[in-house]
Design a protein that fits this description.
Helix content: over 70%
Number of helices: 7
Largest sheet: none
Structural class: mainly alpha
Order of helices and strands: HHHHHHH
Radius of gyration: 74 Å
Number of strands: 0
Distance between the termini: 115 Å
Strand content: under 5%
């Protein structure tokens, strides 16, 4: 069982320091303090791992070298425009630029390679000497006319082919459209027939339901009539029974009255007899019937 110190409520202490010797008490106290210190150090390292290990692979010297290299690279400046201009003029000391050199080389090449047109025509066309200029023009015109005629014919054929293709496409589209319309009309007819059939079936079912209801109402009315007839018969039978009972009661009343009168007369007659008188006097009864 733990004993809590009066001014330290956050942790349980050892059992009753009064039962332990002074040496053991201080030994325990020092051990506890050492444990506290170690635990506090562990907590500090856990919160701040940089105290034990920085975790970075680079060293201070490496970072300095990198910074120095960056400084060197930033100090380097690009070449100036005057240097480039000097370099370009050094290639052409007399002031002639690359454009002038190109023009001069082109003129030289054209001068060296310019062909003789007359010699070339003579070499290419050996029959020019035999044919006259007019015949050559007529032949060229005829060829041009034939080429234009062939081109026109080809254009007409292409136009006819294109028109025929367009007609075929139009006919095919019309046929497709017509078939679609026929299909739509047939589908509409089928839908209308199906709708009519559904309507007829619904009307038939409604008529059957109405007939069933009418038959049920008629049967209920007939049953009501039969019940009314039975009730009437029962009521009549009850009335007849009551009348019979009333008649029987009247007859019984008459009979009772008759019997009462007869019995009274008989009693009176018997009471007037001497035997009864003797009995009354013998029994000392002071009352007469």
């Amino acid at each position: 069982m733990h004993i809590y110190h009066p001014y330290m409520y956050d942790r349980p202490l050892r059992p009753s320091p009064l039962r332990v010797s002074t040496t053991a008490r201080y030994r325990t106290r020092h051990a506890e303090m050492r444990h506290r210190t170690r635990y506090a150090a562990l907590r500090y390292w856990e919160v701040n791992p940089a105290v034990l290990d920085d975790g970075s692979d680079t060293e201070v010297g490496d970072e300095d070298t990198v910074n120095k290299e960056r400084c060197v690279d930033s100090d380097a400046s690009p070449p100036r425009a005057s240097d480039t201009s000097d370099a370009s003029t050094s290639k052409h000391p007399h002031g002639a630029g690359p454009k002038d050199s190109k023009d001069s080389s082109a003129s030289a090449s054209t001068d060296s390679h310019e062909p003789d047109s007359k010699a070339t025509l003579a070499e290419d066309d050996p029959d020019s000497e035999d044919e006259e200029t007019g015949d050559l023009r007529v032949m060229l015109l005829r060829r041009i006319y034939e080429a234009e005629k062939a081109a026109e014919k080809a254009r007409k054929e292409e136009a006819a082919t294109a028109q025929a293709r367009k007609d075929e496409v139009r006919k095919a589209s019309e046929e497709v459209k017509k078939a679609a319309e026929e299909t739509a009309a047939a589908q509409a007819q089928e839908d209308a027939a199906a709708a009519q059939a559904r309507k007829d079936a619904a009307a038939k079912r409604t008529a059957e339901r109405v007939k069933k209801v009418v038959d049920a109402v008629r049967a209920a009315r007939e049953r009501g009539k039969k019940l009314e007839e039975e009730k009437r018969k029962v009521e009549e039978e009850r009335k007849r029974a009551e009348e019979r009972e009333r008649a029987e009661e009247e007859v019984m009343k008459k009979e009772v009255e008759t019997n009462t009168v007869v019995v009274a007369k008989t009693a009176r007659r018997k009471a007037a007899s001497p035997e009864v008188q003797d009995w009354w006097s013998a029994n000392n009864v002071w009352r007469r019937p």
